[in-house]
Specification:
Blueprint (H helix, E strand, L loop, with lengths): L2 E2 L11 E7 L6 E3 L5 E4 L10 E10 L10 E6 L15 E6 L7 E4 L17 E6 L4 E3 L5 E4 L11 E9 L9 E11 L12 E7 L7 E5 L12 E7 L6 E6 L4 E6 L10 E10 L13 E11 L6 E2 L4 E6 L7 E4 L2 E2 L8 E5 L9 E3 L5 E4 L10 E10 L6 E11 L7 E2 L5 E4 L7 E8 L11 E4 L9 E5 L4 E6 L11 E9 L7 E13 L5 E3 L2 H6 L5 H27 L25 H4 L43 H14 L49 H7 L9
Parallel strand pairs: 7-13, 14-20, 22-29, 31-37
Antiparallel strand pairs: 1-4, 2-5, 3-4, 5-6, 8-11, 9-12, 10-11, 12-13, 15-18, 16-19, 17-18, 19-20, 21-24, 23-27, 25-28, 26-27, 28-29, 30-32, 32-35, 33-36, 34-35, 36-37, 37-38
Function: Cadherins are calcium-dependent cell adhesion proteins.
Keywords: Calcium, Cell adhesion, Cell membrane, Cleavage on pair of basic residues, Glycoprotein, Membrane, Metal-binding, Repeat, Signal, Transmembrane, Transmembrane helix
Subcellular location: Cell membrane
Length: 718
């Protein structure tokens, strides 16, 4: 039961009817329409809806007319403590630095209560800690969690699970409560210095260790993590500081000991190193906990190893002359056993190299000899690898590279640098230089760098040409006489002898071909062969050029004439006398719908289909009535022939039309027949309005038509 509505007009006789409308009317709230009692049909939840707005009215039960104006009333839902506090964000994960002071704030938790905070203590929450003491505490009003101990050490305990409770009704008995879990992790700070587990270490390193290789590791322990445990290792003293080095592996935080110089057991058998490990990221708040570094001593013992033979040089360079006989000694390599045993050494050429087939080596002495005859001009350098091993232990092998240079001897005569095309002009003068020649030699500059040029003395005297050695490894070809004639002799041959300055000197003979050509006054070659043929015909060069120019001009005129003939167009109008009788075709596209809208197209159709006749210049054509079988309108009586004549007269008198006749097509098929149209498109009457008996008088050709439209019975029926 909620309340009762009552109207002053209600006499208790049941004539008044109460009506309830608004939020929840008929579903949540129902009313007794006679007594006005309002009841709720279900439980109400304030957290879902705090109030309802309803409208009530009293009406006459018989007439349904309102007895009073409609009234509004509000039903408010009163809260009770039916909702427990809730932590909407839990569970929580939070961190706090280790060694923090007591009372350091960790996290603030907040619980919410859906009850009405303005009514009683239903929504008044108090916080308390159920688990996590004595390490942490919580403020009962604000929910702030704080540390409760001094110097909490992460290395002792890192993770804590704290349970916080929130209770309403101000924590009184009967209040509802909710809880959440807060996982607290202590983060690391650099509060622990590094420490070596031992103060003395010992390391064994064989003397065969390669320079630059890692020979050992050492590590100092640090209880901290992350960057707080980063450290750097250094060698602070010791007799091995120049032989060994140390570096820090950032991933494993180990000191990597590497070899800087080769070890020799026979010279020094042990080394001592003092190594320091120190943190790189210091926290000065904890400097009172001691120096954040530690020192240890490392003793390195060098192990004796049976080493391979050691060559006296890291590489060898030898020389041998080309064309030397097979078995010629090139040079000797030498290796010794570095161990105290001083075992004998055997030599051999590494067969994996490509040039091993050209040389041999004495296994006992290390002497390298030639196995083939060499040509420096083909291959001037050879690279081989010589290996040495101990007789007592063949598995220990050492290698050394050997480069062999092939020395040059004068075994190639000089020759012309290229094939020269020597030309002499017909108008040449005596002593004129017509060509400068050079020579090349496959031998190096030590054998044949200086060339000598001369004519073959065994041949008779040459009256036409001579040669002059310029003493700079070039020679000049000179003329001996004035004027040369192609008609007499067009080609001359000049043998040239070339010798080098090697020991012994070598020489070769080459023949130059000299052509006689016609030249301009400035020495430019005009022709060497073609003019000789024309000269016999008696034509000069100027005459030949004039003839060719005339031929070119004539060809140009002919081509121009043909082009003009082809490009000439036919006239649009053939005869000037019959201009108006010709149909001229223009290859132009029409304007589409614009052309059809430019004039009245009705004039070109059947005059009977036009609603009205439009005449130009207000000229009305004469209309002659034609005898019709049936009466029709005045439009149907127009004679098309007269209509066309009228249009032609108007066109002749109109100054705006073109000054020549035009062909106009009228889409008209002539007068309708006496029988009228057989189409139903233009027919405005029915079959019952017309008499088709006259079709039977037209003859047998229209018999079928008479059967269709007349009243005569068909032959099929009879």
């Amino acid at each position: 039961y909620i309340l009762q509505l009552h109207s002053n007009s209600d006499k208790g006789d049941g004539s008044v009817k109460y009506i309830l409308t608004g939020e929840g009317a008929g579903t949540i709230f129902i009313i007794d329409d006679t007594t006005g009692d309002i009841h709720s049909t279900k439980s109400l939840d304030r957290e879902q809806k705090t109030h309802y707005v309803l409208h009530a009215q009293a009406i006459d039960r018989r007439t349904n007319k309102p007895l009073e104006p409609e009234s509004e009333f509000i039903i408010k839902v009163q809260d009770i403590n039916d909702n427990a506090p809730k932590f909407t964000d839990g569970p929580y994960i939070v961190t706090v630095p280790e060694m923090s002071e007591m009372g350091t704030s960790v996290l603030q938790v907040t619980a919410t209560d859906a009850d009405d905070p303005t009514y009683g203590n239903s929504a008044r929450v108090v916080y308390s800690i159920l688990q996590g003491q004595p390490y942490f505490s919580v403020d009962p009003k604000t929910g702030v969690i704080r540390t409760a101990l001094h110097n909490m050490d992460r290395e002792a305990r890192e993770h804590y699970s704290v349970v916080i409770q929130a209770k309403d009704m101000a924590g009184q008995v009967g209040g509802l409560s909710g809880s959440t879990t807060v996982n607290i992790t202590l983060t690391d700070v650099n509060d622990n210095p590094p420490r070596f587990p031992q103060k003395h270490y010992q390391l064994y390193v064989p003397e065969s260790a390669q320079v630059g290789s890692a020979v050992g590791k050492i590590k100092a322990n640090d209880a901290d993590t992350g960057s707080n445990a980063d450290m750097k290792y250094t060698i602070i003293s010791g007799d091995g500081s120049g032989v060994f080095s140390i570096s820090t592996d950032k991933e494993t935080r180990e000191g990597i000991i590497s070899l800087k110089k080769p070890l020799n057991y026979e010279k020094k058998k042990s080394y001592t190193l003092n190594i320091e490990g120190a943190n790189t990221h210091l926290d000065f708040r904890f400097s009172h906990l001691g120096p954040f570094k530690d020192v240890t001593m490392l003793k390195i013992i060098v192990g004796d190893v049976d080493e391979p033979p050691l060559f006296t040089m890291p590489s060898y360079v030898m020389e041998v002359y080309e064309n030397a006989k097979i078995g010629t000694a090139v040079g000797t390599v030498m290796a010794q056993d570095p161990d105290t045993a001083n075992s004998l050494v055997r030599y051999f050429i590494d067969h994996n190299t490509e040039d091993n087939r050209y040389f041999t080596i004495d296994a006992n002495t290390g002497t390298i000899k030639t196995a083939k005859i060499f040509d420096r001009e083909e291959t001037p350098w050879y690279n081989i690898t010589v290996s040495a091993s101990e007789i007592d232990n063949p598995g220990l092998v050492s290698h050394v590279p050997v480069g062999i240079r092939i020395l040059d001897i004068n075994d190639n005569p000089p020759e012309l640098a290229r094939d020269y095309d020597v030309v002499v002009c017909e108008n040449a003068k005596p002593g004129q230089v017509i060509q400068t020649i050079t020579a090349t030699d496959k031998d190096n500059s030590a054998n044949g760098a200086r060339f000598h040029f001369s004519l073959d003395e065994e041949l008779p005297f040459n009256p036409n040409f001579t040669l002059r050695d310029n003493e700079d490894n070039t020679a000049s070809i000179l003329t001996r006489r004035r004027r040369y004639s192609r008609s007499t002799q067009d080609i001359y041959y000049l043998p040239v002898l070339i010798s080098d300055g090697g020991v012994p000197p070598l020489s070769s003979s080459s023949t130059l071909t000299i052509r006689v050509c016609a030249c301009e006054r400035d020495g430019r070659v005009r022709t060497c062969h073609a003019e000789a043929f024309l000269s016999s015909a008696g034509l000069s060069t100027g005459a030949l050029i004039a003839i060719l120019l005339c031929v070119v001009i004539l060809l140009a005129i002919v081509i121009l004439f043909i082009t003009l003939r082809r490009s000439k167009k036919e006239p649009l109008i053939i005869s000037e006398e019959d201009v108006r009788e010709n149909v001229v075709t223009y290859d132009d596209e029409g304007g589409g719908e614009e052309d059809t809208e430019a004039f009245d197209i009705t004039a070109l159709r059947n005059p009977s289909a036009a609603e009205e006749l439009k005449y130009r210049r207000d000229v009305r054509p004469e209309v002659k009535a034609l005898p019709r079988h049936h009466p029709s309108s005045s439009l149907d009586s127009i004679d098309v022939q007269e209509f066309i004549k009228q249009r032609l007269a108007e066109a002749d008198l109109d100054p705006s039309v073109p000054p020549y006749d035009s062909l106009q097509t009228y889409a008209y098929e002539g007068h309708r027949s006496e029988a009228g149209s057989i189409s139903s498109l233009d027919s405005a009457t029915t079959h019952s309005d017309q008499d088709y008996n006259y079709l039977g008088d037209w003859g047998p050709e229209f018999k079928k038509l008479a059967e269709l439209y007349g009243e005569i019975e068909s032959e099929r029926t009879t």
